[in-house]
Amino acid sequence: MVGRSVGRSVGRSVGRSVGRSVGRSVGRSVGRSVGRSVGRSVGRSVGRSVGRSVGRSVGRSVGRSVVACVFVFVFVFVFVFVFVFVFVFVFVFVFVFVCVYVCVCVFQRRVDNTTDFYLDWKSYKDGFGDLTRNFWLGNDNLHAITAQKNYSLRVDLADFEGHTRFAEYADFAVANEDNKYRLTVRSYSGTAGDSLGYHDGMAFSTRDRDNDRLSDVSCAQLRKGGWWYNGCQYANLNGLYLGGANTATGEGISWFHWHGYQYSLKTVAMKIRPQ
After folding, report:
1. Could you read off the pLDDT of 1-53 as tens digits, one per residue?
2. Contacts of 222 (CB under 8 A, 6+ apart)
3. pLDDT confidence of residue 9
4. Most exposed of 12, 108, 182, 241 (fewest Cβ within 10 Å)?
């Protein structure tokens, strides 16, 4: 009886102890395994979901930003293009309007020897030089301007001794190229003497187009310029810049009725004004 009682008591105690120990061990092991498995599964699922959501959101945001940038670029480009076009159009319109209808338009200037005026027909047709220094506006432009209405001409001259003279002509016009840019210059007044009146009615000549009245010589080649040569000239304002008194008869920037042929003037400006 005693043995059975002791056996039962010991068995129960040992069973409980072993059961608890095994249960705890198995529970911990199973819990860890299940926790890891569930954690991984949940983590992957949540990660994918969050990644997709974030990716879509970022993609939409970037897409909208790109579209906005493209729109802004196109808008700015179009605005700048239109602004520049309008500015250039207005500038040209105002320049032509002022030159043709309002104030003085300088079409020739000589101030130094940095620009070659012994050029061909096309150069004088189109114009050349620097508008702030030495230049010729162009025979096509001269015709286009003077064909609009009546113009007067003023020629300002200066020598190397500090003296100045001027010549004015109440009537001035230049014909078109078909008429060889024929000159009309009449009704003189001024202090320089009427050297340009000798050239009234003459066609324009250059080194490659001889339209003067001499049959055996080219005045443009002889006098080294482009001009309305007669036979040959009293005025040669597109001649060589020789710097004052010289021995090159008629090749310099000359105005016969002031300094004769053997003096090349310091500065010249030819200006027209609408009447």
Report:
1. 444 554 455 445 544 554 455 456 545 654 566 456 645 664 566 556 655 76
2. 232, 250, 251
3. 56
4. 12
Q: What is the pLDDT of residue 85?
A: 80
Q: Which pLDDT does position 230 carry in this prediction?
A: 98
Residue 74's contacts (CB-CB under 8 Å, 6 or more residues apart) are: none
Q: Is 259 in contact with 158 (CB distance < 8 Å)?
A: no
Cβ–Cβ contacts within 10 Å for residue 81, how many?
A: 10
Among all chains, which residue has been given the structure tokens 């040209």? 92
Identify the CA nearest to 257 among candidates 182, 191, 212, 170.
191
Specify the residue for token string 């002022």. 98
- Residue 226: CB atoms within 10 Å: 27
- DSSP secondary structure, 102-136, as one string: IS-EEEEEE-SSSS-----HHHHHH-EE-TTSSEE
Residue 27, amino acid = G
Average pLDDT of the segment spanning 140-149? 97
